[in-house]
Amino acid sequence: MPLGIGATSLEENRVTIGWSGLGDLSRLPADREPIKAAIQRAYPQKKAGAIPVEAGIIYRFVHEIVAGDYIVYPSKHDRMVNIGRFTGEYSYNPSSDDDEYPNFRMVEWLVSVPRSEFSQSALYEIGAYVTLFVVKNHASEILQKLDPTIAIEHDDESDRQDDDAVSSNLTKQAEETTEDFVIRKIHTQLSGHDFEFFIAHLLEQMGYTVRVTQKSSDGGVDVIAHNDKLGFEPPIIKVQCKRTTNQINESQVRELLGTLVEGEYALFVTLGAFAPKARQSERNLSKLRLIDGEQLYELILKYYPSLSPRYRTLIPLRQIYVPDINE
Q1: Which CA distances in Å does 77 have to 81, 151, 169, 176, 205?
Q2: What contacts 24+ positions apart, CB below 8 Å, involve 135-142?
Q3: What is the 3-state secondary structure (H, E, C) of 136-155?
Q4: Helices in the chain by DSSP H: which ranges?
Q5: Would you write out the chain's pLDDT as a tens digit for each of its 327 residues?
């Protein structure tokens, strides 16, 4: 039974959910109606249409999941889809470091796969707004990353959603689907050297003067950027471009830093994500800037109108309006 989880701790090998106001969830009857009543008492501000959905999440997390069930967690911050297996029963720890998420189950994470290796329809399904749900339509595609012989169970039960929940889901799906589309187009349609020219062009739209280094013997520096037209005035920005959807580790970032001399800065751009230690280096070094796939996507949207026809043809986008879930 593949499952989706919203709140998780990959480092601690566990998945967590909230509802701290309900206390120990195992003390609630194994029935959705009493769980709905408990939610309504503890959270009187909840919309009536959301309560059945939340009751279903709690019921499944506490009573349906068993050790050995599979879990899929799409992690937005690093654009990876994490697949694992539940290893324990439901636990409650009100004195945990995060008091808002005292309900948890232990998990063994088995593999992390870039989002680009899944079909768009699979990404759409596992990106649902509900914290915990059964993956019905693309379970085999997900579990094939582990073992193509694993038998799949199907669950036809569906949860009701109110209008606000549906609007939030549509907005989130539109944003994530567009981001996946843009990243996939760049990854599949551009070579590594083409990607360097694309990043150089994007930097030009941001106001920099740029030049792409020679294809060989660039010393890890793919693009040189300057603030002035002739490139004499500091700072000089050395850019490394990696057209990969995998994670960039700290040693790769350190290699770029090793090319710097006085008055130079480093910019590392990738379609994937950066390891935590690499991000720590960025926080500690003012001369280092890291741009991952999600941040690159945001820059592309911001400067899309000024991109050359070549790149707008490569990444065809049209502006639409979606519900503002923050309002």
Answers
A1: 11, 31, 18, 12, 26
A2: 135/2, 135/3, 135/4, 135/72, 139/2, 142/2, 142/70, 142/72, 142/81, 142/83, 142/118
A3: CCCHHHHHCCCCCCCCCCCC
A4: 32-42, 51-59, 120-126, 139-143, 163-189, 192-205, 250-257, 276-284, 293-303, 309-314
A5: 344 344 446 777 888 888 888 889 999 999 999 999 999 998 888 887 788 888 988 998 999 888 988 888 888 777 888 898 999 889 888 775 456 778 888 999 898 888 888 887 788 778 765 567 777 778 888 888 887 676 545 444 444 444 454 445 555 666 677 888 899 999 999 999 999 999 999 999 999 999 999 866 556 799 999 988 776 777 899 999 999 998 999 999 999 999 999 889 999 999 999 999 999 999 999 999 999 999 999 999 999 999 999 999 999 988 776 666 454
Residue 61: φ, ψ to 5°: -65, -40
φ and ψ at residue 182, rounded to 5 degrees:
-65, -45
What is the radius of gyration, based on Cα positions, of the chain? 23
Tokens of 313: 């043809």
Fold type of domain 3-161: ph1033 like fold (3.10.590)
Token look-up 């068993």 returns 66
CB contact set of 15 (below 8 Å; sequence gap of 6+): 5, 7, 8, 9, 71, 73, 104, 105, 107
Neighbours of 283 (CB within 10 A): 9
Name the residue ranges covered by the structural domains of the chain.
3-161, 187-314
Using an 8 Å Cβ cutoff, are 286 and 264 in contact?
no
What architecture is domain 187-314? 3-Layer(aba) Sandwich (3.40)
pTM of the model: 0.59
Distance CA 65, CA 70 (A): 9
Give strand pairing partners of 72. Answer: 4, 83
Q: Which amino acid does the sequence have at 277? A: K
